[in-house]
Amino acid sequence: MPEASVLFLRACLMVLALPVYLLSFLGIWEPFCRKIFFPYFLEWLSVIHEKKVMKKKQELFRNLPDFTGPSGQLRLLEIGTGCGANFQYYPPGCKVTCTDINPHFQEALSRTMSKNQHIHYERFLVAAGEDLHQVASGSVDAVICTLVLCSVQDVNGTLKEVLRVLRPGGAFYFLEHVAADRSSWKYFWQQVCYPTWKLVFAGCCLTRELWKNLEEARFSELKLQHISVPLPGTPIKPHIIGFAVK
């Protein structure tokens, strides 16, 4: 019965989103989404999300300076930088390499950079999380990834790249929305929304149990906490937050 209900409600949601499905069928939606809709949506969402998680992020990134390498300057790599919502939390003088698979975020990114001149921007790379070949192995002190692992093609492949580019003793910081408890109504609605949400929001997956990927990755230490972010009317309230050490 629950499976039948999920399928029925999925169909109802698909009917409501029929114009998007039609545009997708015609090959119009994806380029429009990447270039115009998703950068605009993410910048808007970031403002709302930041208000809900600011204290959590301040606490999360407080120990970033502890991972400064032998060079004496903290080298950061951010995967899926988007519009640069995390810049305000980075310590002064650190060197930041920004990456994103979508080059159309650079306009919003430039605006955020101008507001955060306490950090040094090294370069922007158009790159997927699973393929950071432009970044040398063991070359960064910390990797930051927030609200990105939900939409990468290969979570385990991305974590392997994180481990490759980190120096020994470096840290991976994360804040990601995840699947709710499978016995909960939240998970039921995540299942209902899944296909349409993924199409509309550039491949974002609602039901990934990302804590399992992190637990199975080859980190020497993992500090992970499950939290709920109050985002009324959305299926992305359950989150995980923490850091892992190579």
UniProtKB/TrEMBL annotation:
Residues 77-174 form the Methyltransferase type domain. One of its GO terms (molecular function) is S-adenosylmethionine-dependent methyltransferase activity. The keyword Disulfide bond does not apply. Keywords: Membrane, Transmembrane, Transmembrane helix. Coiled coil: none annotated. InterPro entries: Methyltransf_11 (IPR013216), SAM-dependent_MTases_sf (IPR029063), Thiol_S-MT (IPR052356). It comes from the Eukaryota. The chain crosses the membrane at residues 7-29. It holds the Pfam family Methyltransf_11. This is MET7A protein.
